[in-house]
Amino acid sequence: MAAKTGILVIGASGQIGTELVMGLRSRYGTENVVASDLKTASTEVLESGPFEQLDVLDRERLHQIVVHYNIGQVYLLAALLSATAEQKVMPAWNLNMYGLFYVLEMAKEGIVDKIYWPSSIAVFGPNTPKLNTPQSTIAEPTTVYGISKLAGERWCEYYFNRYGVDVRSLRYPGLIGYKSNPGGGTTDYAVDIFHKAVSAQPFECFLSENTRLPMMYMPDAIRATIGIMEVESEKVKIRSSYNISGFDFTPVELADEIKKHISDFQITYNPDFRQAIADSWPSSLDDSRAREDWGWKNDYSLEMMTADMLSHLTTTVS
Ligand code: NAD
Ligand code: AKB
Q1: Which of 157, 188, 266, 290 is the most buried (most CB within 10 A)?
Q2: Which CATH architecture has domain 178-215+247-283+301-317?
């Protein structure tokens, strides 16, 4: 049988998908990477290769697309994120769990070969050690999003152990990028702040000034994602999900870093319901297992990310 060369990205119009599709296309060829989402994609994604409208919960259509494009690898990004999920509890649970089941089942049946599914720092909860949170520790999430991610991790490991499904996963921290906007998360402030700063507008932060969270610059996240998918199977020793880390900061530290470039930038703080979510998450992560097992290493620091974000967004605004 011919090798399955197609790659399907589900949830390709979101914050990560927009950049991941372009990263995969430049590596594997534009025609081999099929973008799919409920909603339309960025012009860059639409013009550079195939796009299919897909509701991942429509199992029949998912199957048709996989067969039509000879898909071997699936990147499943479709999910409702932490803040939105608290407003839409059952839809979030259904999407975050059944989307994963449908893809895991296709791999179990040998229809696809390999799956990438992202987890999150949201698997941790208020009883987790906050600083340098270990790979394996107390995980008692208090959000529907975190509960769905923790359950997803357990199912990924189960499908690997029981059926040999080659599924790989990273626990992303908050992701920051300039190419696409975030969609309903608690870490979104760290992207929104840059858009206000380059437009010379004050920023009202929905988290308090000293809320420290782990974060990562998007180029590092895309490199980690493609990296764990390309590494030899034997090196992927954790089949639930790997901690990966970039840097960590508080809103006031990020604002101070931005002020090094835009001295009159102003920030105020008005915490809302997302504060409780952020307070339940780690402040920093220990990602030594990812470093040891498959050679993960971040490139970007807070300083480098801030300078890069501002230079790209300033070009866009001016
Ligand atoms: P996003 O909200 O920006 O994008 C999700 C995409 O999924 C959207 O384009 C949406 O239209 C699509 N979608 C929603 N329902 C769908 C359905 N039924 N069928 C098909 N597509 C559907 O999210 P993101 O930030 O790109 O996150 C992608 C994944 O990474 C998620 O699983 C998320 O939990 C995880 N993650 C993200 C971050 C982050 O900081 N962005 C951090 C940790 C984990
Ligand atoms: C969110 O804030 O919900 C996401 C995440 C850390 O999973 N960015």
Answers
A1: 290
A2: Alpha-Beta Complex (3.90)
- Tens of pLDDT along 257-274? 999 999 999 999 999 999
Q: Ligand 1 center to residue 261 CA distance, Å?
A: 31
Please tell me if the CB atom of residue 227 comes closer than 6 angstroms to any atom of ligand 1. no
- Tens of pLDDT, residue by residue over 146-165, are 999 999 999 999 999 999 99
Ligand lying closest to the C-alpha of residue 122: 2
CA of 11 to the centre of ligand 1 (A): 6
Residue 75 annotated to the active site = no
- Residues 6+ positions from 182 with CB-CB distance below 8 Å: 15, 81, 175, 188, 191, 192
Taking 90 as the threshold, does the pLDDT of residue 173 lie above it? Answer: yes
All CATH 3.40.50.720 domain ranges of the chain, comma separated, are: 6-173+216-243
